[in-house]
Amino acid sequence: MSAAPDTLVELRHGARRVLLAPHVGGSIAAFDESRDGRSIDWLRPATPAALAARDPLGMASFPLLPYCNRVRDARFCFDGALVDLSGDGNAFAHALHGNAWRLPWRVGDVSESRARLHFLHEPSRDAARHWPFAYEATQDIALDASTLTVTLSARNLSDRPMPFGMGHHPYYPRTRNTRVHARVAAMWHSTPDLLPTHAGPHPSVGAMASEQGMSADAFDLDNNFAGWSRTATIAWPDEARAITLSADAPFHHMVVYAPASHPDLLCVEPVSNVADWINLDVDRALKGGAVLEPGESVSAKFAWTTRVENSAGAY
């Protein structure tokens, strides 16, 4: 079973539903469920306008390949050569999130509760294909009674080593009562244009580790966090519900995007590298990222597990 290239793919498990938008950067467009006569959005759903515009930034979550977050001035040196991404069609001053989120993915096998999406990048003169290394990627997406699991896989198809990072960019419903719970070692402080400078203390670190968690409105954040335990919970205590993000290695890094200027936006993202890792002069263990040899593959999964409090006060 497969879907037309410009249509949504629906996965279902009981009252739970996931909508995929392969043509919008391989995005997840919605993750929701019906319970006790109400609809619960676990991720911020894409609007009809965002779907019509094919805007990945308006989706519920989208993949980050072949790197996460920003690359300073859209340039870096690798293996003795300058890689210039300034002409790749990215509208940002610093190249952002790679190219897979801005190109369509192909739908592979689909069943009632599972789907596989495929992506193939071949360098060319086309703007969005300016990344000079060939690679392929898949997303295996599976829905069950409690969890939505995504397995990201990629393989270097080039005849030379390729710098690489991956992640996903989920948006969560943000209210005045939304709380974020996580254990991290430090926050990456950054320049005004959001390039990291150093990892160090920040009040958000303690707030997320506290029993009550960090209010999504507590700080103006668009930051990477180091020493993440690879699990984070977003909770809506007034709605008696929570969703927990858990991730495998190499998703050793976490991004929190909770901008004061946009109080409706909240992202807690599993990523394998900090912003601008390829230009950052620190130990690889601190900044993440990888180099894939020709033909080398990498695969890792992350998952969202949902909880709704019952009448007895337990999840």
From TrEMBL:
Coiled coil: none
SUPFAM superfamilies in the cross-refs: Galactose mutarotase-like (SSF74650)
GO biological process, one term: carbohydrate metabolic process
Pfam families, alphabetized: Aldose_epim
One Gene Ontology term of the molecular function aspect: isomerase activity
The protein's name: Aldose 1-epimerase
Lineage summary: Bacteria, Pseudomonadati, Pseudomonadota, Betaproteobacteria, Burkholderiales
